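Following up on my earlier thread - several people asked me to post the actual chain instead of describing it. Fair enough. Here it is, all 304 residues.
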Amino acid sequence: MADDLPTTSADARIDLHALLREADVMPVLDQLDRELIGLAPVKQRIREIAALLLVSKARKQLGLDAQPPSLHMCFTGNPGTGKTTVATRMADILHRLGYIRKGHLVTVTRDDLVGQYIGHTAPKTKEVLKRALGGVLFIDEAYYLYRPENERDYGQEAIEILLQVMENQRDDLVVILAGYKDRMDTFFRSNPGLSSRIAHHIDFPDYGDDELFQIAQTMLGQMHYRLDAPGEAALREYIGLRRRQPHFANARSIRNALDRARLRQANRLFAQAGAGATLDAQALSLLAESDLRASRVFSAATTH
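Reply from S.P.:
Thanks for posting it. Predicted structure:
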């Protein structure tokens, strides 16, 4: 048994803080905090994974750990909860810590991997994997790869190729599968080989009303728009109503709502300009209450 112990001197030391500073990971984690409102459990898990990878790197340098940690992941949650943003930052973290060569993110769906006829799927899947090598492959709505109800479906072929690469080239590619939690759970039960290769499962919760309002304010600031007090009240009411409607996609739905409000504002200002009005920066930047309340979300609420 003694022959199996590391040969590193017992006096060997490593400066973990210096290793962290050299990897320059903290700016990425801080950026994630700034970019995403809420999502505290997600951010904590990302920090924990970064800490694990840093310690694993330190252990390897002292000859204590020759086996790299498993890095494939699954992100579950509803649309618009920040999964793609976190995947992008994760790729950056992995690259800075030396676990992948390039740090780029390749985002795909079923259509990018699965062909429509015999002999089409393998080259499509292999081409995507070739592009992703050295980085992170993010497969959104991954459960669509498996369609057992269709005997002529070629998704299983893509899964088998994916499994081989996840195992044989795990030092040069990290795969992140993403989608609704219930559907991903069913997908993994049907594909235990994939499930066994996923080390980290991270669930992305829906945003609350206050968090969605903060997200909207951040988006408006980035676009150089603003709301007055009546507009803010209308936005808060809109968020409460929209969250109870079907097909709500968290931050994505909020961005769509603001884009439509901007369209209404532009039409309103265009009409004013046609009547001979001159407009200053304040007028061009303000989304009025009426720009928000013209949404069908409000009219639908009054009909119920």
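The chain has a mean pLDDT of 91. That should answer part of your original question.
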